[in-house]
Design a protein that fits this description.
Layout: H1 2-10, E1 13-22, E2 27-28, E3 32-41, E4 44-45, E5 49-58, E6 66-75, E7 83-92, E8 100-109, E9 117-126, E10 129-130, E11 134-143, E12 146-147, E13 151-160, E14 165-166, E15 170-173, E16 179-180, E17 185-186, E18 190-193, H2 199-210, H3 219-225, H4 228-252, H5 254-266, H6 268-291, H7 296-329, H8 337-351, H9 357-375
Parallel strand pairs: 1-3, 2-4, 3-5, 5-6, 6-7, 7-8, 8-9, 9-11, 10-12, 11-13, 12-14, 13-15, 13-16, 14-17, 15-18
Helix pairs in contact: 4-7, 4-8, 5-7, 5-9, 6-7, 6-9, 7-8, 7-9
């Protein structure tokens, strides 16, 4: 057993950096784990490939599993086993010998899949041949390839192109009838289920995916060119998501939340300093852990925790702002949810100001929130639930 573990570690390789490039002549004898901004995988991997970053591209074969997470994913080489992909824009042109699980804003499945496919997202195009079954939840689905077994689809819009061939049954849930082009073939039965309650959600995901830029660096250009209603919708969705997160925190950790808010108000400079330390040091420590094979899981967990804390930090700042304003206006006891709502409205409005003011507001809120949480006692006592929020 120890020899097996030792051989696995020795055959595993970890790479990191801004740009990680594997040349065409290079062969990775075992597993490869990558943490980077841009990955150019031109070489061959004999084991599994695990990578996270912004732009990830594979052009050669991977004999094991492929697990990728990032903004733009392009799988051009063959995959010898299963593939698990998550990103904003995903294109799969290589053949997959196992199953495919993919979630993204815009997903193109151009290559063949020998196993089953589970997919979800905004817009999904299927042009390759899928020998197994198909299970899709999305806003807009276009099938132009072959599905070997049964297909179950939930989509606001379903299109069967003239080249579509379904050898099994097709059961779909949609707000409209499927757009079946002339020449589309279904060997089994075609069944339409009831409309369901989530069609608005899937339709919205399709609309949002249409506005995703090819490169996140063009965010400013994309934001300025998007319609006004879309920008208002983004701000409102951000407010609602933070309000829900804040309500959960107040129900489960009410005492902790109020104490963090009090620390932010009582020690603003100290809180800001600790927040800056947290913001800078945690990613560096997590990146160092990710370099080693043994520390990779701990590093990834640390990065995930860091992102969660950075997101919910605005809840504590909003609570501090709301309580500070309402305490000056009225001396009456009010439900704690109202200061949270007031603070979130102020933060949402200030964050929407252009010319980098909005980004500065977000950074300041994150610094204060992280600093307040870091200054709290290490042992968090969970307060009893209070239904009066």
């Amino acid at each position: 057993m120890f020899l097996g573990v030792a051989s696995t570690v020795l055959c595993s390789e970890t790479r990191s950096g801004v740009l990680v490039e594997v040349s065409e002549t290079e062969v990775i004898p075992g597993d490869l784990s990558v943490a980077c901004r841009t990955l150019m995988m031109n070489g061959e991997v004999k084991g599994d490939l695990l990578a996270g970053g912004m732009y990830l591209t594979t052009k050669n074969s991977v004999e094991g599993d492929v697990t990728l997470g990032g903004y733009s994913l392009k799988v051009g080489g063959a995959v010898g086993d299963d593939a698990r992909l998550a990103g904003a824009n995903i294109e799969i042109s290589g053949a997959i010998a196992g199953d495919l699980v993919v979630f993204g804003g815009n997903v193109k499945i151009l290559g063949d899949v020998a196993g089953d496919v589970i997919a979800g997202g905004g817009n999904i195009w299927i042009q390759g041949d899928i020998q197994g079954s198909l299970d899709v939840r999305c806003g807009n689905l276009v099938i132009a390839g072959t599905i070997g077994r049964n297909a179950v689809v939930t989509a606001s819009k379903l299109t069967l192109s003239s080249t579509a061939m379904l050898r099994g049954n097709l059961s779909y849930t949609s707000g409209r009838d499927a757009d079946r082009k002339e020449g589309a073939q279904i060997a089994g039965t075609l069944t339409k289920e009831s409309k369901g309650r989530r069609m608005v959600f899937w339709r919205l995901t399709s609309i949002l995916a249409n506005y995703l830029p090819e490169q996140p660096e063009r965010w400013k250009e994309w934001r300025n060119s998007s319609p006004l209603w879309f920008r208002i919708l983004l701000g409102f969705s951000s407010f609602v998501s933070l309000l829900i997160a804040g309500a959960v925190i107040l129900v489960v950790y009410r005492r902790h939340a109020t104490m963090v808010a009090d620390r932010i108000v009582s020690f603003p400079l100290k809180t800001l300093g600790w927040g800056l330390i947290f913001l800078v040091c945690v990613p560096i420590a997590a990146a160092i852990l990710c370099i080693s094979v043994i520390g990779l899981p701990v590093g990834l967990i640390g990065l995930a925790t860091y992102l969660v804390f950075s997101y919910i930090s605005r809840v504590y700042v909003a609570l501090a702002i709301g309580r500070g304003i309402l305490d000056r206006i009225t001396k009456q006891d009010i439900r704690i949810i109202w200061p949270l709502m007031l603070g979130l409205i102020i933060i949402t409005v200030l964050s929407s100001i252009p010319f980098y003011v909005g980004w500065l507001v977000k950074i300041i809120c994150v610094l204060f929130g992280l600093g307040g949480m870091l200054m709290m006692e290490k042992r968090v006592r969970v307060a009893p639930r209070d239904d009066t929020i």
